[in-house]
Design goal:
single chain, 172 residues, alpha/beta, Rossmann fold, 5-stranded parallel β-sheet, 6 helices, 43% helix, globular
């Protein structure tokens, strides 16, 4: 690794990875020499997929995007420690709405206190992708709704297979 290489980390649970995530990955990859997608655990988000399944899903989606400077790494640690270990100088975060900004602004401030050498960069989600959230995708799928517009066909198949295994929450 050259010392002048600019490394970014895009952290998230990616449960599941959405078209919004893919948009941020494509755009974030243009800003750095190497973008590391940090797939993390967050039990409070009631994950539908295991960490290993999410890593494999993100790797498959990244391969389909054709971006060659993106690497997928799982982690279960403080983000700033993970970023330091990866040699990152940038944290990439996607914003959908004002509510995201308030939370992300607070997190960026805390992260700056932990390591002022790592900068947080916010990318606004594409307007047509702003309403997409993994939590909502799972909820729609669990109630039997169509998630085709929110995720890739392969991810849709993964989610629907998991819903069949878990059982739907409601029927009309």
């Amino acid at each position: 690794m050259a010392s002048s290489e600019r490394i970014g980390v895009y952290p998230g649970t990616f449960d599941p990875i959405t078209r919004g995530h893919a948009d941020i990955i494509r755009r974030g990859a243009k800003l750095v020499d190497r973008l590391i997608i940090g797939v993390t655990t967050n039990p409070s988000k009631n994950p539908m997929f295991t960490p290993q399944e999410r890593i494999a899903m993100v790797e498959r989606e990244v391969a389909a995007m054709g971006v060659d400077n993106v690497q997928v790494v799982g982690f279960n640690a403080l983000l700033m420690k993970f970023a330091e270990v990866q040699g990152a100088s940038v944290i990439v975060r996607g914003l959908r709405a004002v509510a995201d900004f308030e939370y992300e602004y607070q997190m960026a401030g805390m992260n700056q206190q932990l390591n002022a050498r790592i900068e947080t960069v916010f990318l606004m989600a594409d307007v047509c992708l702003q309403p997409i959230a993994s939590k909502l995708v799972k909820e729609i799928a669990l109630f039997g709704g169509d998630i085709t517009n929110f995720v890739s066909p392969a991810v849709r198949d993964d989610v629907m297979a998991r819903v069949e295994k878990l059982g739907r929450l409601g029927e009309y």
